[in-house]
Design goal:
The complex is a heterodimer of chains A (349) and B (312). Chain A is an alpha/beta fold and 349 residues long. Chain A is 29% helix and 29% strand. Chain A starts with a strand and ends with a strand. In chain B, helix 1 runs parallel beside helix 9, helix 3 (119-136) packs across helix 9 and helix 5 runs parallel beside helix 6. The chains are: A alpha/beta (349), B alpha/beta (312). The A-B interface holds A 30-31, 33-48, 50-51, 58 and B 7-12, 110-111, 113, 203, 205, 207, 231, 234, 237, 239, 241-250, 252-257, 261-262, 265-266, 269-270, 273.
Chain lengths: 349, 312
């Protein structure tokens, strides 16, 4: 067991002794009963004789109350030392929690039942992390999507950070920009003691982004030989990764655009971009709907990390002026353990 | 919410009952005069300063005959009977004597407790009022304060004009000490051979009990008149918390943690003690009055007159 409190054990001992002496003194003072004059104490004697059946308990009650008071005082002072089980001696840490809020965090595979999204689980992990912080630790919560947005200052106010996580963080529709987030976190941690970055994410980052980070010197450094002059330098920063979700197909429509022809106002041109974020080849059936009617469908075989761009010219306007694209898992490639997050985009014309 | 009773602290600098300068003021005198007027109506028809006794003597009411013996006064020979029976018989008459009233006031330390008026002051006012009525009725009245002994005495006096002497005596008589009713009554009956009405005004908080003292009066043919005075706050104290209760007379200390149930038990015990005294008096047909200091003393005195137990 180690103690993380701001005061030393020696000082604590003096404080504890002083408090104990004060408590016992106060108890002794309290034991000096107020004296009151009565005209006929014999009447009280008669009453007390009737009530003295539990005299032993009455005598013990005072001793028990003193011991209880000292025990409570001891517990309070012990808590002031901020004892931590299993922790080694360390100084207060500065933690930046990078909470992935990219589109992939909407996937409903956070738990076995499929009732929680990855974002929900990520929030729980982040709050658990905040709750386990020591007395001198401070943390900052940063939202990571297309941008890196600090949601708080460095603070040790756990309930406040928890509230920010609950109220102000939700998954967006953009991919996560990991290098930018790591850069912002590294900047925030500059000149701080014991810097620590905790990434709470499903890990669905493009390989190209991972190459922009100089992981050398960190215990969780992925094996990459990427060299980049703009790489984020994370040396001397402890970077940890808290994974959420499970590995699965990760194919998504990352761009969907509709444009009306200048010459023919009744027709539209549709642009769709789809990308496989997973580590395995993926097969998708890309279907474009005009209202409730499918106007085109294509089979796509996507290599890991592959982008595919599709352009659909001269699509007539529908009755409800709504175009929609889906890319569900094709039946032949579906396996029970691979629950993908089918992404659909729609655009009103 | 009722504030806790403010008992007089043990380490008080001065006994509040010591100050008796304002006890018998102008208002008190007016009240006494009123009581006297009322008492004249109540006692109308009775002979003034005459009280029939079982003694035979020189009264005017015929009591009995007895055989003439040498040296008897010829004037009391019943000549009519001599003519009929040819025997010299002497006519005897009931002795008519003044009533002797002894006002015994408890001045022990327990009587000094009470708020706003100490029980002692109340007892003295009642005693003075009864004395005044007695004096005004041409009875012989004596006031005898007692605690653990008979501390002083106002000799038997007669006549209304003696009332200021009574006031002066009550204001200056020494007070304090324990209550030892039995010893005091023993001394009283020894010192006062003339029997009469013995009005005992006390709280009867005697650790040895009240029975023996009253029994002594009864055995010596006095007519005990029991008047118990108590304070409402001592009957229903508003205390709480851990206290050391000190007996004001004996100094005996009882450490108690006062709770609601304990207070209720005490109130029951106090009531029981008072009922014991009342039951004792009822058993021996002794006039008994119980009063607390919140009742005006003149109201109590009128109640005593109307009950007929005082001055027959």
């Amino acid at each position: 067991m180690s103690f993380l409190g701001p005061i030393g054990f020696g000082l604590w001992t003096y404080v504890a002794l002083g408090a104990a002496v004060l408590a016992v003194s106060a108890y002794i003072i309290k034991m000096r009963r107020r004296r009151f004059e009565v005209p006929f104490a014999q009447l009280w004697q008669r009453v007390l004789e009737q009530k003295d059946a539990n005299a032993l308990w009455k005598q013990l009650k005072r001793l028990v109350s003193l011991l209880l008071m000292l025990a409570i005082l001891g517990i309070l002072l012990f808590a002031a030392l901020d004892p931590t089980l299993g922790a080694v001696d360390r100084k207060a840490r500065s933690v930046v929690i990078l909470l992935d809020a990219s589109a992939s965090m909407k996937a409903m595979d956070g738990d076995e039942a499929g009732k929680k999204s990855r974002m929900d689980v990520a929030k729980e992990r982040a709050k658990h992390l905040i709750d386990s912080m020591g007395g001198g630790d401070v943390a900052m919560v940063m939202k990571v999507d297309g941008q890196a947005t600090p949601m708080s200052r460095f603070s040790n106010d756990g309930p406040m950070l928890d509230k920010i996580i609950d109220d102000k963080l939700s998954a967006s529709d953009t991919p996560a920009d990991l290098p930018r987030a790591l850069g912002a976190a590294a900047d925030a941690l500059r000149d701080r003691t014991n810097p620590l970055i905790v990434i709470v994410s499903d890990g669905a980052f493009p390989e190209s982004q991972l190459g922009l980070v100089k992981w050398a010197g960190t215990p969780y450094a992925p094996k990459t030989d990427a060299k980049n002059l703009a790489a984020v330098d994370l040396s001397n920063i402890d970077v940890r990764y808290l994974p959420v979700g499970r590995r699965s197909d990760n194919v998504g429509i990352i761009a969907f655009n509709v444009r009306r022809y200048i010459a023919n106002k009744a027709a539209y041109e549709v642009f769709i971009e789809i990308q496989n974020f997973g580590q395995e080849p993926a097969h998708r059936q890309l279907t474009l709907y005009n209202g409730q009617t499918a106007v085109d469908t294509k089979r796509l075989d996507l290599a890991p990390g592959q982008h595919v761009r599709q352009i659909y010219p001269k699509i007539p306007g529908g009755e409800d002026n709504q175009l929609r694209a889906t890319a569900p898992i094709r039946s032949r490639s579906t396996t029970p353990r691979m629950r993908s997050c089918p992404r659909a985009r729609s655009r009103r014309c | 919410m009722v504030a806790p009773a403010k008992f007089v602290p043990v380490t008080r600098a001065k006994n509040p009952a010591e100050d008796r300068s304002g006890l018998f003021d102008e208002k008190f005198l007016k009240t006494l005069e009123h009581l006297h007027m009322v008492s004249r109506k109540v006692f109308s028809g009775n002979l003034r300063a005459e009280r029939r006794t079982r003694k035979v003597g020189s009264g005017i009411e015929f009591a009995d005959h007895r055989t003439y013996s040498r040296g008897d006064d010829f004037r009391y020979i019943d000549w009519n009977l001599y003519g009929r029976l040819d025997k010299l018989l002497l006519r005897l008459f009931e002795e008519e004597e003044d009533l002797h009233i002894y006002i015994l006031v408890d001045v022990s330390d327990s009587m000094s407790i009470g708020s706003p008026l100490p029980k002692l002051h109340y007892a003295m006012q009642v005693g003075a009022a009864l004395t005044y009525v007695g004096l005004a009725n041409l009875d012989r009245v004596s006031i005898i304060p007692f605690g653990d002994r008979l501390t002083d005495r106002l000799p038997l006096s007669r006549g209304k004009n003696r009332i200021f002497r009574v006031f002066d005596f009550l204001q200056k008589c020494p007070i304090g000490g324990k209550t030892e009713l039995a010893e005091c009554m023993k001394d009283f009956v020894t010192q006062n051979k003339r029997r009469g009405l013995a009005v005992v005004i006390s709280d009867f908080y005697d650790p040895q009990g009240f029975e023996q003292g009253i029994n002594t009066l009864r055995y010596y043919k006095f007519e005990p008149f029991v008047l118990q005075v108590y304070d409402l706050k001592e009957a229903s104290p508003k205390l709480h918390g851990d206290l050391a209760l000190v007996d004001c007379e004996t100094g005996e200390t009882k450490e108690v943690t006062v709770s609601k149930s304990l207070l209720e038990a005490y109130e029951r015990e106090h009531e029981k003690y008072c009922k014991e005294l009342e039951g004792y008096c009822t058993k021996y047909a002794l006039p008994f009055f119980r009063t607390h200091t919140s009742i005006p003393f003149d109201e109590l005195v009128l109640k005593i007159f109307r009950s007929g137990g005082f001055l027959r």
